[in-house]
Amino acid sequence: MAVAELYTGGRSLADTLQTVADGVVSGFGYELACVNIVQADGDLVVAAFAGSPEAEALITGRTGSRASWERRLTMGEDWDGLRFIPHTEGHVLLEDDVPQWYTQGPEPKREDDWHPLDRLYAPLYGPTSDLLGVISVDRPVGGIRPGQSDRGALRTYAFHCAIAIGNARLRANMQRALVRLERQQQALRASEESFRQAFEYAPSGMAIAEVGGDQHGRLLRTNDALCLMLGRPASAMRRLSFSDLVHPEDIGTLLRTSAEGGRAELRLARRDGSYVWVSLRNSIVADTTNGPRFLLTNIDSIEDRKHRDLALEVRARYDALTGLLSETELHDRLHGRLCNRADEDADGPDFALLAALTSTSAGYKGPALRGSSAGLLYDHRHTEEPGKGEATLAVLHCGIDKFKKINTRFGLAAGNAVLIEISRRLRQEMPADCDIARLRGDEFVVLVDNVDEKGAEKVAAGVRDVFRRSIALGPSNERARIEATSVLSWASCGIPADQILGRTSQLLHSKKQLG
User: Fold this and answer.
1) Long-range contacts of range 470-477, CB-CB < 8 Å, 24 or more positions apart?
2) In which band, very low, low, confident or very high, does the pLDDT at 343 lie, cut at 50, 70 and 90?
3) Class of CATH domain 205-307
4) Measured between alpha carbons, how far is 162 from 296 in angstroms, rounded to an integer?
5) When you count CB atoms within 10 A of the terminal residue's CB, does the N or C end of the chain come out lower?
6) CB count, 10 Å around CB of 281?
7) How many CB atoms lie within 10 A of CB 489?
């Protein structure tokens, strides 16, 4: 009956241990029974007690060290798997740390009488002979030590107790595992929901794409912010990959962007065919442990910043008043046309620049010049690249004469109007491939590439005509002719751009002083 009780299903580990203790008292003729269970640290704790509420309250939950229990289980007499320690040996255990309930009783009169200090233990072993616990019993009914049949019954009961305790422990472990799994699943669901909300409602664009394989970069999921940014519905986005959206000029940037922690600035196509500048940040996420990996991409529009950068670039590259190239941009373009190879045929002490004045000046004291119908020209050519022939680059530097008088007489607004009109005429009259820049208020430079002497003279004549035509000045629209001085020069490889422009400016100012 006691064994049958052990296998009643659904019991917890605690209930099973108490059933074990109760079964010893009710079915095997002992007044007291205690169940000690091995803990994770190896020590044994009193987990159940039967037969004495007073003893149960005193020692339940108390712990005995594994070393003390190992000592007890090797002492005394081995009763075919049970361990009996008679009072004649047990007195040495009175001071160890194993919890003990000492019963009162008379001194034994016969050899087989039970002494109050006798101890009987039934070890409980698992399938792999590991110690699960120990049942200790006391005060057999009738006060007589158990005989062979009683010992066998207790030994058999202990065998079944070990099975029942192992099953109960397994159920408890499974229940704890299920609880942990459920908590993990709840945490995962909460995390997934948190990610879903963060993904869907993020103010910046978000996308999940495949990583690796033939479908690398294919969009699997996009949030509303990205769909709104690109003007595309989510259903259409799932048919595309990043390479389908990227501006053709930015494909290289996309390919160079690392999937793991990569960053890039590139353009993505809107539905209407326009492009938006975005900042793109990649990271790799796994669907589950050791599961497939996906590319999580955060996309922010940087259109406003790009517009500001472009405005700053335009401000640096173009003159705010006239729209012509700025001096900085002119310098960069001139520098870009010249290589670092010095012209071996160049004359002159320190640079290969031959310049000419657009008209003769009796007082000019510069280097020897060759005459021309358009003025005096230096006889040098610009070499674009070694071994690829020669290509000329003419530099026409112009300056308005006595410009300050215009500002003084008609006002700064009129002076600005003159500069604007001159700039408009230069853009209209000069060849389309010319670079035209405004320098230092009233000075202009025209770069004419791949032109011979006659072509350069024609350009110089056109510049003179631009300045000679009258311009309306002041509120009365009084028309006046603007006088100007110009210098035509040739640039040469091996000469720094600032040196070329510095020399043309020096020649221009020298001519103005002579005029």
Assistant:
1) 471/417, 471/418, 471/421, 471/422, 473/406, 473/410, 473/414, 473/417, 473/418, 474/409, 474/410, 474/411, 474/414
2) very low
3) alpha beta
4) 53
5) N
6) 16
7) 25
Mean predicted confidence (pLDDT) in 456-485 = 82
Which pLDDT does position 253 carry in this prediction? 85
Contacts of 142 by beta carbon, 8 Å cutoff, 6+ apart: 29
Residue 461: burial class (beta carbons within 10 Å; 0-12, 13-18, 19+): middle
- In this structure, what is the dihedral angle of CA atoms 185, 186, 190, 192, given to the nearest 10 degrees? 20
This model's pTM is above 0.70:
no
Q: What is the pLDDT of residue 84?
A: 95
CATH number of 318-514, picked from 3.30.830.10, 3.30.70.270, 3.30.450.20, 3.30.2350.10? 3.30.70.270
Give bridge partners of residue 84 from the DSSP assignment.
Answer: 77, 120
Exposure of 209 by Cβ count < 10 A (0-12 exposed, 13-18 middle, 19+ buried)? buried
Lowest mean per-residue pLDDT among 54-63, 460-469, 476-485: 476-485
Question: What average pLDDT score do residues 129-141 get?
Answer: 92
Distances (CA, A) of 50 to 19, 31, 151: 9, 8, 19
> Mean pLDDT across the chain, nearest whole number?
81
Q: Helix crossing, 13-27 with 148-200: angle to 10°?
A: 170
Q: CA quadruple 57, 61, 64, 69: dihedral positive or negative?
A: positive
pLDDT surpasses 70 at 397 = yes
In a 13 Å sphere around the CA of 218, the CA atoms on its Cβ side amount to 10
Token pair belonging to 8:
């009643």
Residue 394: the pLDDT is 87
Is 205-307 the same fold as 2-173?
yes
Task: Say whether 41 sits in a helix, a strand or coil.
Answer: coil
Residue 347 has pLDDT above 80, yes or no: no
Domain coordinates in residue numbering, the chain: 2-173, 205-307, 318-514
